[in-house]
Amino acid sequence: MADAPRNLTWIECRFDELSPCQVHGLFKLRQQIFIIEQDCIYPDIDGLDPVCQHILTCDDDDVLAAVRIVAPGIDPNHLEQGDRPAIGRVVTSEKLRGQGIGRKLMIRAIESCGHQFAGKPIYLNAQLYLRSFYESLGFVQFGDEYEEDGIPHISMERPA
Description:
The chain is of the alpha+beta class. The chain contains three helices and seven strands. The chain has one domain: Aminopeptidase. It has a seven-stranded mixed sheet. Strand 4, helix 2 and strand 5 form a beta-alpha-beta unit. The longest helix is centred in the N-terminal third of the chain and has 18 residues, at about 20-35.
């Protein structure tokens, strides 16, 4: 396991508050993990980022982990989200894996949802292999397993 970068900073903001370098780093990280590493061709740039809240972990200008929070009723592709906020596009660079950054990122996202959408449960569209990770954060599966972009997924909810 590599040493964690020393200059980690956390950023939480709207998309239009990100610098051009941060936007580039965010898309580069998601492309590297979701499209190249997971060998999954899908439209990552889906039009939702500009209307989402983002949490990033950076080492200088290098985006190493990220998540976006989708407000209720925004995502037309996940109507099962209903009136709940959703946490999505959860991604951690291989440089940080196994160091607890993904858990810290999710805790920040859950806390942010609590501040922005108090009293509402949180929706999550999870890759099946991460079920126990999300369960450890209080999410529970509902519905059946399904395939999205060639990868097994489940719908999960964290009660309010």
